[in-house]
Design goal:
The structure holds two protein chains of two kinds. Chain A is an alpha+beta fold. Chain A is built from nine helices and seven strands; from the N terminus they run αββαββααββαβαααα. Chain A is elongated, with a radius of gyration of 31 Å. The N and C termini of chain B lie far apart (98 Å). The chains are: A alpha+beta, B alpha+beta. The interface between A and B is large, with 64 and 75 residues. Strand 7 of chain A pairs antiparallel with strand 4 of chain B.
Chain lengths: 228, 340
Amino acid sequence: MRHLLALTWFLLAAWFLFASNSGGRDVELDGPRPDARELVRGPARAGMTEPRVRIGGFEQKCSDCHALFSSLEVTPSEIRQHEHIALDHGLNDRCYNCHSREDRNSLVLHDGELVSFQQSSTLCSNCHGTVYRDWERGMHGKTMGSWVVGSEDQVRLRCADCHDPHAPAFPDFDLLPGPRHPHGPEAVKERHVTREQLRNPLERWKQTLQRPAHRADPSPHHDPEKNE
Amino acid sequence: MTDPQSNADSVRTAPEPGGLGLDRRSFLRNGVTVVGGMSAFVAALSPLRELEADDIPSVEGFLQKHYKEMTEGDMLSALERIRNEVKKRFDIDADVRDVKPRDGVEFVYALNLSRCVGCRKCVHACVEENNQSRSPEIQYIRVLEMPRGTTDIERGDHRYDHPTVPDDDHYYMPIQCHQCANPPCVKVCPVEATWQESDGITVIDYDWCIGCRYCEAACPYWARRFNYSEPVLPKEDVNPDMSYLSNRPRSKGVMEKCTFCLHRTREGKMPACLEVCPVGARKFGNVLDPESEVSWILRTKRVFVLKEDVGTVPRFFYYFDERYPREGESFQDPLREAGK
């Protein structure tokens, strides 16, 4: 009996010594990492500060061409020139609402005053007054460089540094990878049940059929909306 | 039956002349016991086989005092030691500093829930800035996808996946350390390895932390992270701009958390998560300055804090812009529907 115990002891010790570290768990630690280009800090786009465009590899001032062409009295409803511009700015769908017809190197306010492209935010404030007020206080928009008020390093991005003036609503954004599930991305799909699903009794019943019992026992969720 | 027994006894009591006083049976019995015991002892010590020179703390590291008790000279030698360790581990010349809080500054963060699109850029910019472990993955920011009409974070989902964001039926709520004015994590630490600094940032001395994870359990915002294994950080991903209390490389068995990028913010810069945000949803500044962005937000916007009822007094505020849904935007107001 004692020999048997000692032998078991010895075998157990040998197993601890040689085998215990080889049995790895099925844990996935490495996974997708975001592209460094996705994480560039700075303005979302380059807002125009000078009235210049590149046409055919040459940089031109707006007036270089528009001095040659006479401008139409009224903007046509579809864009025949500058076709890369997709105009999607709500009711504001006429070029001369913002661009000056006389001076192509300037923008024009509602009262006819000309402002430079550098001051385009003033033009935006003509319609978006409340947002402009927030932006002036830093409550809207993005401040970079420094949080110290009045610091030289502080850069307050202008409207056009984030929004395309011709289509100001943000397009949808690409999604960077979420937190990794220790058992791999498949496990997320299989095991992850949203709270919304748990709230639905039919979904809960379906979960019970699909998975072992210990995972499929959601606690009854308190729903404040239904009590009201 | 008695004969062999008595015979054996007589053999045992009468050792061979010139022998060791052992008969065959007791020799085997004792031998097996000794070998088994030795094997068990070796097995118990077998984890030592994996011990490398780096796992044993240096003498200076072992004798290092608590952050608050260090003199200027102590700190300089500690920084030198960290610099050498970084050089040895990553072959990188890091700029390791100890950045002190500024006078008259209390940091506050504000996050605009109307703007956040849930793209997770902040999550990864933070990892890049703060030298977190890439494997296993440690992230300070958790972006919750929330169903519209509730702020109950129990209903949030941080593993969401869509081709693009934002999803029309959800809004997004990033959660990171709230830098509470009444931090439960600090109260529970048995060794005072974590404390609140004068500018409101709760920091950890990674050399003092014993890894008991009490603070992780105490935090109502799930903001603290633990290094369960040796953090893996590729050499090319190391950010050499380091400070003692924030993003210097951590080791296995210590807690870490968001420090509002104090190596940046205490030098006047903005945190990394803010600078990378593509929609300007994140706002940071000094709440003691009435002209700062955050002060204006706290005065004029609809602001709330998460889990106000637990009394942590966070320095992280969520706010809204008041606006009506745009054309084509799907938005159901549950309260309005309930009223109908």
